[in-house]
Amino acid sequence: MGEALPPPCEAVGLLKDRVGEPFTTRLLSDRRGSRAWKIEGPRGAVALKANNPDDSTTRDKAAEMAQEDDHLARLTDAGALSPGYRVAAGVWEGGRWLAVRWVDGVPVWRAFAPARGPEGDRHSVRPWLRGVARTWAERLARMHTVGWTHADVQPTNTLITSVGTAEVIDYALACGPDNRPRLPYRGALTHTTAPEIAEAILSTTTDTHVQAEPPADIWGLGASLFWCWTGHRPVPYEDDTPREDKLKSIAKAATLPIDDVRPWAFPEFERLIRASLAPAPKDRPSACDLTALLIS
Prior knowledge:
Layout: H1 9-19, E1 24-31, E2 34-41, E3 44-51, H2 61-77, E4 86-92, E5 95-101, E6 105-107, H3 108-111, H4 125-144, E7 158-161, E8 166-168, H5 195-202, H6 214-230, H7 243-251, H8 258-261, H9 267-276, H10 287-295
Antiparallel strand pairs: 1-2, 2-3, 3-5, 4-5, 6-7, 7-8
Helix pairs in contact: 4-6, 4-10, 5-7, 6-9
């Protein structure tokens, strides 16, 4: 599969000096207008993504990749990201590519699998869940304190490392503190969209930018923890429900009672999730509040 869909040679030519030779390339995903590879050599590994120029069914991924590169530079300058996260970026004959530091982790849904059943109620699992939530909140707090919102908090945009820490990735849709030109933000993954974002999307035209604020990230965090721990999305609807109707349900902020769907009782974790899913943005804790709560 990697040979059938090789990464852009323009990117490989630059990245081979970083990872060393001989190096390998492995296609990780090919969906929704973009492709991602792992490029690994004796000196390390990077994650490389590029737009798929043959996919005309999705939004302009080349422009989105350029936007993410701009966001990474600005977030690094603001101190919200470590300087080594962004590796390189450039153009290729089909559009744009972007390379970032490789994060050795697994998506939240897969990482939470052992905790999703009754057998997850073990002494070792509770502090592990607390640690995941705490480090996830810490990553978001670094953005929020400098005026940024991730705006796409969801299970596939956070990786859980072998030591149980959360690493946030994919900053393409992030919303910054100024009014620079950008692609209009119209929400991200529907299932973790905050009610105020859903309402704004429903009440504006498709070319109107919706500015996401930090409380929307907190809802996304709570929704992701709810979903990955219980196995149920917090707002119920059928999979084949049209997106507009899903957003209408989310805008009502009527979530499933976590007591009815939890795999086992964990009152502290449940309180954190409930607080993060408060209907009114002002009633949700900040990322710093969550971090402090989970440290104490």
